[in-house]
Amino acid sequence: MPAKLSVNLNAVAMLRNRRDLPWPSVMHLGRVALQAGAYGLTVHPRPDQRHIRFSDLPDLRALIDDEFPSAEFNIEGYPSEDFLALCERTQPEQVTLVPDDPAQATSDHGFDFRTQSEMLRPIIARLKRGGMRVSLFADGDGDEEAVQLAKATGADRIELYTGPYGGCFDAPAKAKDMLELLGRTADAAEALGLGVNAGHDLTVANLPALVKRIPRLAEVSIGHGLTADALEYGMAETVRRYRRACGETI
Predict the structure, then answer these.
(1) Which of 200, 232, 196 is nearest to 217 (CA)?
(2) Disulfide engineering: 39 pairs with which of 4, 149, 244, 246, CB 3.0-4.6 Å?
């Protein structure tokens, strides 16, 4: 089964926030993405609201519930009490926990499961009691012990941090090495019954090799590259291009 595409709307929101104006509309472009066949929408609300605003979340939740009930809402963030309460109010289908400092420009590493597993266990249990699937941002470095520790937290999935792979756009030999490490990490997770998602710097160009190496990849969350392509092709056609890159026949 092809990996499912979740469209990350952060870059759209960041462009909107450059002016005190309601466009580009996060809601409208989220609707266009879902109409074009995206499986879901992803947001990463940060404490400073520099892209997605807390006020966007109820509207996006309602968009999915009212118009696309088979789609999923995925909310990413560092598991502070404020973030957990936000998730409990919004009830996304999936929560992706990341180890980011609030000041970071973007997510750039996975959890250190050797030191952070104990912190994560009660948080994951709390979210799962609320009916939410939990995914943990993880380095795709082939570390099987780290994957075992991630499994022991009670998480449902890991999300492979694919930034190093995406950063090899002009170095094909290095990209091949990074891809194999991601594949080994995914193999270890799947052997333990963990689902595998992926995200960060994924593009139409590098997705096919990723989904070929990880054929049971559940979901990819894509924002920056997809939004950049949407400036050229439009959101609907861009979503279709990414769906084909994920292996869908459309």
Answers:
(1) 196
(2) 4
Per the prediction, the chain carries an average pLDDT of 96
Distance CA 8, CA 240 (A): 15
Residue from 76, 77, 73 nearest 38 by CA: 73
Question: How far is it, in rounded angstroms, from Cα 109 to Cα 162?
Answer: 9
Kindly list the domain boundaries of the chain, sorted by start residue. 4-245
Amino acid identity, position 80: S
Residue partners of 201: CB distance under 8 A and separation at least 6: 162, 163, 165, 166, 167, 224, 225
For the whole model, what pTM was predicted? 0.96
State the average pLDDT over residues 231-235: 98
Question: What are the pLDDT digits (tens) for 153-191?
Answer: 999 999 999 999 999 999 999 999 999 999 999 999 999
Residue 222 near residue 8, CB atoms below 8 Å:
yes
Considering only CA atoms, give the Rg of the chain.
17
Q: Which residues are catalytic?
A: 44, 76, 200
* Pairing mode of beta strands 4-8, 40-43: parallel
Q: Does domain 4-245 have CATH number 3.20.20.70?
A: yes
Which two tokens mark 90?
A: 């919004």
